[in-house]
Amino acid sequence: MSNSDANTERFVELLGAHERELIAYVYALTMNWNDAQEIMQRVRIRLWQQFDSYDEAKPFGAWARAVSYYLVLAFRKEKSRQREYFAEAVLELVSETYERGVDQAVQRREALMKCLDKLSAEQRGVVDRCYANNEKIVDVAQQMGITSGALRQSLFRIRKSLQDCVQRFARSS
């Protein structure tokens, strides 16, 4: 067996014995499985490239972790320079969240319209005056011949019944 073959065999043996530990270490530094896998590819290559400089008197795991650490730092620096990458990822996330929110808002609005139709004529009139027409509660209460506190309590009960109704629609769809 040639010296080169023996060197390759020793490298494969040491890497095999420490690879799981290295993957766990890199993952702990990145907290992202895809990034850890990408960095581990770089780690394997760099370890092989620098294996001739490895001192057999020292633990392979510690040497490999030191190499891995610097490759993680380089990877993080590289990623931080790629602003479009993060901007695109953020935009995708915002877009998805927005789309989900729009769909939910449309469904909730449709449910609210159906629930408003279920109110009595008197309740619907109060809601329209206080919310759609933006009339002051004091003025509406005075015209109705009740106290503003009583009107507020009535509006609270109406809002609660509308909220419950909208939630029932949401659960049924």
Automatic annotation (TrEMBL):
Keywords: Sigma factor, Transcription, Transcription regulation. InterPro entries: RNA_pol_sigma-70-like, RNA_pol_sigma-70_dom, RNA_pol_sigma70_ECF_RHOBA, RNA_pol_sigma70_r2, RNA_pol_sigma70_r4_t2, RNA_pol_sigma_r2, RNA_pol_sigma_r3/r4-like, WH-like_DNA-bd_sf. Gene3D superfamilies: 1.10.1740.10, Winged helix-like DNA-binding domain superfamily/Winged helix DNA-binding domain (1.10.10.10). GO terms for biological process: DNA-templated transcription initiation. The keyword Transcription applies. Pfam families: Sigma70_r2, Sigma70_r4_2. Residues 109-162 form the RNA polymerase sigma factor 70 region 4 type domain. Residues 16-68 form the RNA polymerase sigma-70 region domain. GO terms for molecular function: DNA binding; sigma factor activity. Belongs to the sigma-70 factor family. ECF subfamily. This is RNA polymerase sigma factor. It comes from Bythopirellula polymerisocia.
